[in-house]
Amino acid sequence: MKTFDDMKLEIDVPFVMTDNHGLVTYVNDCFTSVFGWSTDEIKGQIITVIIPKSFHAPHHLGFSRFLTTEKSSILNHPIRLIGITKDGKEIPAEHLIVAEKHQGVWAFMAILRPL
């Protein structure tokens, strides 16, 4: 089975990883090109910087619920959402969000294919 680290090397669409606190831990070059953030600017930021404000509360609720129950209705299948660039532009994108547990701690990965 491929791990997140294996997948990072093979993806040529915007890709972002977060830790179990929702902090960005990795983005690929395609993410920086499309979303306008440099790696240094986005790393350590809460993932909601690329989520529309109207979705912040549902995101936090769903994220907290998942960490408590380890059940999700959005993981592992594509969903259409909006991503926000550094300059505030909205980008419709198909998101594929997956989660992986390492030594009891969750990490999250999202592929953000612009539409």
From TrEMBL:
Gene3D superfamilies: PAS domain
Start and end residues of each PAS domain: 1-45
Entries under Pfam families matching the protein: PAS_9 (PF13426)
Protein name (database record): PAS domain S-box protein
Organism: Dendronalium phyllosphericum CENA369
Classification lineage: Bacteria, Bacillati, Cyanobacteriota, Cyanophyceae, Nostocales
